[in-house]
Write a structure and sequence with these properties.
This protein is mostly helical. Among the domains are: about 5-245, Alpha Horseshoe (Serine Threonine Protein Phosphatase 5, Tetratricopeptide repeat), CATH 1.25.40.10; about 705-855, no CATH class. It is built from 43 helices and 2 strands. A two-stranded antiparallel sheet has the order 1-2. It is elongated and about 155 Å long. It comes from Dermatophagoides farinae (American house dust mite). Its main location: nucleus. It is found in: Nucleus. Belongs to the crooked-neck family.
Length: about 850
Amino acid sequence: MDNDTEKNSSIVISEEDLAHEEDILRNSYSIKHWLRYIDHKKESSNNVVNLLYERALKLMPGSYKLWYSYLKLRIKQTSSLSIFDPLVKDSNNCFERSLVFMHKMPRIWIEYLQFLISQCDLTKTRRTFDRALQALPITQHNRIWPLYLKFVKSHNLPETSIRVYRRYLMLSPEEAEDFIDYLISIERWDEAALKLTEIVNDEHFVSKQGRSKHQLWTELAEILCRHPGEIHSLNVDVIIREGIKRYVDQQGKLWISLAEYYTRSGLFDKARDIFEEALANIKTVRDFSQIFDAYTQSEEKLIQIRMNQENLSEDDEIELDLRMIRYEDIIERRPLLLNNVALRQNPHNVEEWLKRVKLLENKPAEIVEVYSDAVQTVQAKQAIGKYYLLWVKFAQFYESNGQLEDARLIFEKAVTVEYVKVEDLANVWCEWVEMEVRNNNFETALKLMQRAVSIPTRKTSYYDQSESVQNRLYKSLKIWSMYADLEESFGTFESTKAVYDKIIELKIVTPQIIINYGLFLEENGYFEESFKAYEKGIALFRWPNVFDIWNTYLTKFLRRYKGSKLERIRDLFEQCLEYCPATYCKHFFFLYAKCEEEYGLARNATTIYDRATKKVPSSERMEVFNIFIRKAAEMFGVTHTRSIYEKAIEMLPDAEAREMCLKFADLERKLGEIDRARAIYAHCSQICDPRTATTFWNAWKDFEIKHGNEDTVREMLRIKRSVMATFNTQVNFMSAQMMASAFHQQDKEQNNKMNDLENIAAEANQQTKQEIKNAVQFVKSDSATNNGNKMNETIIITDTANPDEINLDDDEDLDAEQSDGDEDENGQSSKTKLTEIEQKMVPKEVFGGLRNDDDDD
């Protein structure tokens, strides 16, 4: 029993406590009664309350509830006391007595440990933690360890803390990252690196902080390279190189870390070797940029440190010069080092090999070595770029140095390589031949061409991938074209002709080859042979590929024979035009018609132009009609163009027909046929909406002002109103149809209103048709003109409700008076009356300011 309890063992019991004491006597082992009694005495002194707890625990020493309440009370009683107060020691003793019975209760241990931590007794606290871990089952240790780790980390006890952490990791190895962070915080770099190495090599380790293996590797490399003097347990070089092999996408950073490790260790030459090794092994431009920048910065710092030193000795100056030379060499080698990276990344990149040759300019021995490595390394099927260029450039290098025999040896090897495409092999042969031609070896060049085009024992298809390119080379058009050029330049007529015939026989000919063949025969005076060559080409090709052959053939034939073989020329043109598409026939029709104009009959020429107007596309028909009209006027006179104009107006679309009508009317006006011109205007007006075709109506208006009278002006205005009414009616009709369609679409969505809307649409349609029928009537006009000619049919509006309408009865009276020619009662003729009417309507200028009623329209 505690000292304070012994001192107060003779405490007098008051009358108020008798009831509780009686309950205790009757229920000595009831925790509820004891706690009720303690609650009753809670306002008493600490000694009284402690005595009650002691009496209760003496009877029930295994009660967790009593012990926990009692210990919490003792902690509360000592919270404001010094750690050296005897009551604090008594409280510790109380905890120790409780643990005799409560040693399996982690809450008691935690309260005790927290109480000891507040007393700053490190040794006793640490031993108590150890006792707690020994007493509690392992399943309860996770409640003790966080407090234990917090305690050891709160004091500067690195060795103790590390030992505690090691024991903790035996229970929870997944908490290794916390241990590493703690080691880094106390700068125990060696052990931190060791632990990082362990978890990096552990395939089953999963970071609780969400860090990847790569991040752990990066952290390890950073520790190793930045603290080389404190790392004793690990081989840094081996570890970082292992990371370089494992993490290919981060090779640049890891190489830099390794070089930094040696730099911080003072091994500058070793660091330089690491940088050189890195530049010789990396495969990406990004890594190259990182390493090269780090390399140059390292050299710059070393130079700057040496330059900042005072009183340099002779050896120091020599070393500084060497470093400057080394630095300049690094800068100069950058393009070549970058090219090395690109070739390591893809050794089959032809462009990079050729770029490397340019970088080694003026170094012939190294260039030969590069070309040799390139042709041995690059595989034709995997090559990026033009593989054959490696062989060609290699041979041209020897040629440029005057080693022609060596160049021939390279070409001999090049033509035996298995290329992917036949064209690549053909290019090699052509380059070889061109080399011989440049060196004036013409016979050798011809022999090489004969070798190249030699037909193998077994013929194959040009596109048969199963055959080698050497067996398919004889069907390469590039080879044969060059062979033909060589024969034309250095061979005989017979040999050249044989080459062209062989090309045609192999069916690899093109229209250009045919044309070249024909020109070659023509130059040598074999005109009929050249025409036969053209005919062979025509038989081989179809439209539109045969267009150039026909054009050349017909042009050359006309130039040769002119009009001497007219029937044959006509047959050729008919043969050409028989299957000629409409897109290409215009040129041949014009050529055919020109031939007839110069050597044949004009009537045949007009027939050809007429055929052209029917066959050419609609977009070109207007141009053909214009040329047809011009030619007809030149050959037969302008009066013979009337039928052409009529046909053009009938065949052309409205916009072009309107333009043609204006030209036709202008022609008739120039010929003095005013009535014909007026009839043309009246006819054309039916396709000219006054709201859009203002040019036409202005032209007619100007025509009537110059050549018409009041009657013709009224007739023009009447026609204009009629046409406008027609177009307005058409627009209204179309609008009604669109409204009906819209209503019909709405009926589909609203079925309950379908019948009503259909009736509305039907009524609108019927009403529109009736309005059109009542509004417009087509009446044939019999009114005579000044020259006694009849006007064409004219649309007359019968709607009498138009306020702007001219009084037709007055017009009829005027016409009657003019036709009868009788004098009125004053002896004036109708002509005189008409003149007076014109003077009333028109100013003194001759119809220059005629007031038109259509302005009101």
